[in-house]
Each structure stands twice: as C-alpha cells, then as structure tokens.
Amino acid sequence: MKMKAVRSVSQRSAFRGVLGISLGVVAASGPLAAEVSCDSLRCEYLVNPSGIQVTRPRLSWTIESTVRGERQTAYQILAASSAKLLEEDKGDLWDSGKVAGDATHQIVYSGSKLASRASGFWKVRSWDKDGKPSAWSQPAAWTVGLLEASDWSAKWIDAAIIRKDPAAGVPAPVIQGAVYEAGDGAGSLDVTGQLVKQAAGGEFTVAVKNDSFGKDPAFSHVKHLRVKYVYQGKPGERTFLENSVFRFPADLTTPPSVPYLRKSFTVGKPVARATIYATALGIYELRLNGRKLGDHFLAPEWTDFAKRLRYQEYDVTASVAEGANVIGAQVANGWYSGHIGNGGFQYWGKSPALFAQLEIVYTDGTLERIVTDGTWRIHESPLLATDFMLGEDYDARLKIRSWDGPAFDDSEWARVVERQEAARILDGQVMEPIRQLAEIPAKTLKEPKPGKWTYDLGQNLVGVVRLKIRAAAGTRITLRHGEMLNPDGSLYTANLRGAPSIDHYICEGGGVEIWQPKFTFHGFRYVELTGVSTKPPLEAVTAIVIGSDIPRTGWFKCSDKRVNQLQSNIEWGQRGNYLSVPTDCPQRDERLGWMGDAQVFVKTAAYNGDIAAFFTKWLVDVTDSQDPDGRFCDVSPFAGPSKGTPAWGDAGVICPWTIYQAYGDLRLLERQYPSMVRWLEYCQSQSPGGIRSGNRGSDYGDWLSIGADTDKELIGTAYFAYSTSLVAKAAAALGKTADAAAHQQHFEQIRKAFIDKYVTADGHVKGETQCAYLMALKFGLLPDELRAKAVEYLEADIIAKNYHLSTGFVGVSYLLPELTKAGRIDTAYRLLLQDSFPSWLFSVKMGATTIWERWDGWTPDKGFQDIGMNSFNHYSLGSCGEWLFGTVAGIDQDPAVPGFKQIIIRPRPGGNLTTASGRFRSIHGAITNSWSLKNGNFALTTTIPANTSATVHVPAKNAAGVMESGKPAATADGVKFLRMDDGAAVFAVGSGHYRFSSRSAVASPSGK
Questions:
Q1: Where would you tag: which of 7, 282, 498, 831 has the fewest CB atoms within 10 A of its CB?
Q2: Which has the closest alpha carbon to 48: 134, 139, 111?
Q3: Residue numbers annotated as active site
Q4: DSSP per-residue codes, 677-742
Q5: Is the dihedral of CA 337, 301, 599, 740 positive or negative?
Q6: pLDDT per position as a tens digit, 753-772
Q7: pTM of the full predicted structure?
Q8: Which residue, among 960, 954, 896, 950, has the nearest Cα to 920 in the 3D structure?
C-alpha cells in the first residue's frame, strides 16, 4: 500500500532553530574513546519537549554498540541554560559528574531549580564495560512551561458569534423552505408550511424531533432540520441536528460559522525570544502572520474540562517581525461543547473559548505580553459548521483573503466578548500531539448508483479527506464516509448511528480547489462523493490519516500472509483509536475512552508503539474521573454510562502496572498508587465475604462472547482478586513493604472465596466457559494441584468447538498466552490460524483491514450484524498481538525486571509457520529476533541491545547440537549454557548479535 508520511514538523525538529549549530557532535574524549555511543535522548519520554510541567524531569537515552556484552558502567550528564554553554561543556544547570551504574532511563534531573519558562540543553556520555568514556551525545533540549497561575495574564474570550435578534426596523428572516430529513438521505418530511405559519406569529422555539413534526421520516436514521431563508436580501441555509432546538428568528440572523479571531500588535525593537502559550475550551488552530502555528491537530487534547486543561507552547521567535503583526485563531466545539459519544452534547459547556498568551522578550531584556482579552476582533468565516459526529461544512465563496495577515483592515469587525470561567488546572502537553500521520491516495473509483461516486482507499483508517476538485462556483460537494459497502456497492452507513460523518464543500469556482476539514475526524475506508455532473478524477480524494503521533516500536512478520494482515489490522486499529485517549471506535457516535478495551489491549499496544507518554496523560484523565468513593468509570474522561464495572474499572490498576512493566516507570506508578488503592477499597465495600456481589456498574460481563456467557459475579470477583494482587506488586515495587503484605494477604482471602464458591474439587470452574477458565488460570485463582485439570477442561472446550474460541473482550487477551504457558502450543496455533467463524482470521478472510468489534461483524450468510453496535475498527479483539511478539517472534521480558532490561528470546514455532521475525524498540534499544525452520533445521538470529542481557531458548534435542555463528554454542564468545527447558536449550547472553542453529526437536510443517 502506498502511504506517504507527512510529518512536516515533528518533535524531533522542534528545537532546530534553538539549538542551531550546536547540533554537531562534540569531539570524542581522546583516542581511547569507547566503542559505545549515547543515542535517542528523551526528556519525560518526549524528544525535545516544550512546555513541560515538571521541575525535576526524567531523562533517558540508549547505549548503542556492536560489541558483544557491552554495558554502561557509568554516565555523566551536562545540562546548561544555553546551547552555547553546552557546546563549551559547561553545565551551569547541572553537571552530574561521573555516576557509577548502568541506568539509562528514569534519570531524575537534579540540578538547579527550574522555574517557569526555563530552557534546558543537555547531553550525556557513557563509560563502557572497560571503563572507557564515549563521545558526548548529540545535544537535546527541553523548555519549562508556565508553572504558576500567576504566570498567566490572558483572559478567556468567547469564540462563538453571539446570536442576535433583528435590529429595530429590520425585517425578520423569511423562511422559504424547511425539510426534516435523514442525514443519509433515507427519508424526508417537508415542514415548510408548519414553520412559516409559526414565524407569522413572531418568535418561536421548536425542538427538532419526531414529535414536533408529527412523523418519523426515517426510522433508526439520524435526522436534522434544514431551513432555507432570506435575511436582509441574502439567501441562507441552516441545519439543526435532531434533539437540538431551533429558535426563530435568532438562529437565522447570526451567520453560521466557526468565526475568525484576530489580534493586531506592533513590535518596535529586536526580539530575543517569542513564545505563545495557548489552550481552549474546545479545539483551536492558531496562526501568526498568515501561517499556522505548529503541526498539532485537535489541540488541546481531551480531558475532564471541568478539572483540567492541557495547553501548548509554541516558539515563534522566527515568526514575529519588527513592525505590524497579527495572531489569528479559530476555535471549534470539539469534545468540550460539541457532540461526543453516546449522545452527549455540550457535556462540559455551551460554546468554545480561547485562552492564549504571547510573550515577547526583547534583546534589551524587557518583556511584553499580548493576551486574549476584549480587544480581539471576531468575524464570521467560510467554515459554516464543524462537529466530530456530524462533519464539516465550508463555503469557499465566503473566503476572506489575508484575514490573518498584518495588512488586513479589521476595523469593521466586532469586538470579542470576555467571559468568566471557573479556575481549572492548566497543565502542559505531556504526550505526543495529534498530528497528520500519512496520506493515502484512493485506489479505485466506481459509480454504484447514478451520481454517487464511491472511492476505495484500500484501508480502513481515521482522518479526513483532502478534496481536490474543479467545479463551477456554488457547486455543493458532499462527502460521505463509511467503513463498508452494501451488496450493491453503495456506501454502508447504517452502523454510524448518530454520527452522519458528512462533509460539505461549496466551490468558489475559477480553477482547481483543494480543501480538507480541520476540526473533525471520521473512521472510513470508503468515500462517496456527490454533487458533480461528470465523473470526478481518482485524485479528487486523498485520505489524510490523523492520530496521536505515538512512535512506532514494533514490527512483526511471518510466513503466513494472513497473520501478517492480522498484525497490520491490529496496528491500524491502534493507530486510529489512540487519538488523545484510547477510544473504542472512530466511526459511530461513541469514540469514548473505554477502560475495558484499554486494559485488555495495553500490553499489545506497548509492543506496537511507545505509549509511555500517551498513558502518562490518559491515566491522569482516569484519576480525574474517579469517584471520591473509589469507583473508576467505564470511560475516561467520564461521559457515562456508569462507574464501578468489573474489568472496565480494573483498568485503573492494570494499565499503570503494565506501563511500569514496559518502561520501569516508578514515578507514574507512585502517582497512580493512591487511586489504585481507592479502587480496591470500593470493591471491598461491594464484596461481602470476598465475593463481588454488590454494585457492579453496567456489569458488561465477557462482552461479545459467542454463546458462552460467563457468570458476572464470578468475573467481578476474579478481577477484584487480580487487581488486589497487582496492587500488592505495585506496593512492593514502590518499597511499601507493609502495604504489599497487607494486599497480598487480602488477595489470598479473595482467592479462597473464589475457590470455595466457583471451583469444584476436580477443577471445574463455574459455567465452564473459556473466559472463566482463563481468568482462573491468569489470575492465580486455582489450587496448584488443579491447574492442570483446568487446562484440560479449557482445551476440551476449544476442541469441542472444533478449535474455535468463544470468549469476548474479557478473556481474549489471556487465551493464547495461557494455553502456551500450559504447554498447549499446538492448540494455541490452531486457534490463531483458524479462519472460520469465530476466529481472528475470519475477518481477515472477509477482507478486513482493521480489527472488528464483533467476531461476526459481517458474515456471508447473515450479512451485517446489529447496526446498533457494529464497528469495523475496534482494537480489543486484537489483543492477541502480544502473543505474536512474545511467542511467535519470541521477544519477551523477564517480568521480575521491568523495562526489558532482562530479555527473554523464546520463539515457539508451530502451525504451518516456517519463518517469523520481530523487531521491538524497547526503552533500552532495539531488540530483533527472527527464526526459520526447514527440513528439521532451526535457525535463530537475534540482536540484544547494549546494556541489557537475555536468555535465549533454542529449540533443540540437546545443547550439544546447538551452534552459534558456526561454532558450538557452548564455546561461543559471550554465550553460556544454562539448562534444557521444555524442548529448548537455554543460553545466557549479553548484548550483541547472535546466530544460533540446531537440528531442531521441532518438526517442520508438513509439505514445507
């Protein structure tokens, strides 16, 4: 697939102008310099972050070397207040001196106190295993944001044009037509007469719903009221969504738009530094002297807006000119006051607002601030409307050219209105922002119905369409989005529910026009274009992929193309749904931060991408949404429907623990620990005798299982036990010894209650579903002597179903790992490679390019599943991805040593696979592993990053038959034989590149 990356400005280049010539490598420390280098410098997980909100940031780097067994024995960090000082090896902020040890991440800055607006430039060097120092690394940088409320001078300004009634003596608008209709064209009702009659009586208000108009023109379709009118001699058209309110005449006297905001200012002397700090209630775009600032989309991220806002910092030193300047902005409703999941509308507020502050430091040392206040100007724009669920409408005929330039005369524009807002926590950007990630051109163009041109992008994705069209002025282009096609080739939109996802563009005329929405996003593979009289070109539609710009860390490939497509589907599901928060789906009217989905997938996610910063942010949202009584919510930020649900609420424990395991992040674990304990206290209050029989919220159970309903009380009790055991481990990791002992004792009590109530004397678990057995095994809820029997019953159920799974969201991530742990690798592979319903490869066989929400989202015999809940981009069931990396590719970690410091290379060949490979860039560096199996000969090639070690499991009949780089492994440099274990010779190795081979005990696949 052709996919063009489009990161025009990334964090990797954010400090290019600041660092300038200092980006050159400082000379090595003499002829005895070590054969190591320090690379991938990051601060708080980010590359050159701006506006950090901590005064003791954590620094990290990786050690790069091709030498076997290489490790760091000491390091030195220099941090300076300027790039020039750092280049001169002067650490006026911090010189750590030579620090003994091999630590390369979570290194806490311990220099001079950092204040608001401080800049830090830093570099590091390392001493190798022989005590030789490396060259200094390339420099990196950070800036500190505004730490105190007193740092802000800005005022909130309303970013919407205030509705107004007609001025005295000005005739009211004249309604010329009104239609109550389905957004997808499924039905309509002419209500012109009704509204004209009401308008004759003066002011009126009507609720936009079926009851108001006496009929439902399209059952189960999303509808709206479309009103055409004339006001002051100018024709207009407004659309009002179902369940909103139409107010006459006020709604027709104010031009509909997402207005332009601007502020002119003059710079009269040389500038040393200029910085903008900005946020919004809603989502914003800033412009300076005609150019967009930064490469963020949908800033400032989704939070619980009643409690917390994230702001962004922009270095605009190079953009501020002496003389006239102007800041321009637009602010849309976004999550704050637009439509969000499950019917939520204006959940946090009624209209958007902007809060921004430009600080100019002149070369003479003086400071000037230009802030949002009542001196800003406002005017309607060509952007008529925008909403996450509805789409975006743009009338190019209404363009105001150079509106954001300093030469523009805004004297006729109205003044903005300042507004009072409750105090909120203002935090800096702590995660990679949402960015434009890629462009995908359309693959095919068809016309299933006259005038309905349907484009296939070849990939289900999240983003918007860039339209490139030539048409007469006034031509109204409609773009509809969908994930699938109906049998007749037309666009399938029934599963979108309350998210019509329709964009409209009205052409200016006069040549080729290019436009893309800026304040909405859609989930789609197919785009239907209407409104043109002749066939549009294929290049009229290009998909712009957007998402949180999480660095990719995982690559997987094997000899079965179907499994490779499965991995691709998993990656695309994560890419599309990790958008500010881990959403459940990007296409219908939901798109919420579902906790259950997040926890079952989090380990897979940590293989595919560097999610540390992403979860650093989202877990704050999780805690912000937690009830005072300890209940975690079903979704975070909370927007309904309930709180305290087993497996969903438990994400507040499982996710922090998994992030700690992946990145060794004790600071995050310590931050989350109190909320984790409060969750246990709530569960305890609802669990008399250790059984979770009390309030279980929405009690979803093993969501979307197939004919295998697991007892919900059992699920609640099992997860209560699991969370308790993880909190015990977290307490131990944090040095809270007494807490750890108390929580472990509590776990044992819940475990006993579980066994007494749900486990029979011969090892059967109540209900005997796959999910029930998997939880009992995974969570350690069985007597040791009964584990083998439980595995037998689990496998028997799978075999009885002809090697099909039946578990849903709750048990799916445990299925393949627990079978593998129990020695049932053949059964695990048969499940993985099964391609009939229900299975992972069934959707692949049906042409899926993302993970489906349901095992049976579409089947040849039944067609589409229930339109009420049928997403084709929903990552939860893709949680098998952790097994692809950890077992098929064989890259895993020692659970006792977080952060992949101690690596386990243990591929488990099976099924019909003859090759598999994986690459995973851990916080310590890149781990690679590949294997092949041919004619009984097994070959394994692996690379272990410097400053780590590994145990390598080579399938073999005995150690003597294992070779490494053409020599007996037992005599190879840096290789130590440990033991034989489950058909594999196990070796201890240090860092480096290794090539193992053996006459394997594993049989080659038949016919291969």
A1: 7
A2: 139
A3: 590, 853
A4: HHHHHHHHHT-GGG---S--TT---STT-SS-PPPHHHHHHHHHHHHHHHHHHHHHHTT-HHHHHH
A5: negative
A6: 999 999 999 999 999 999 99
A7: 0.94
A8: 950
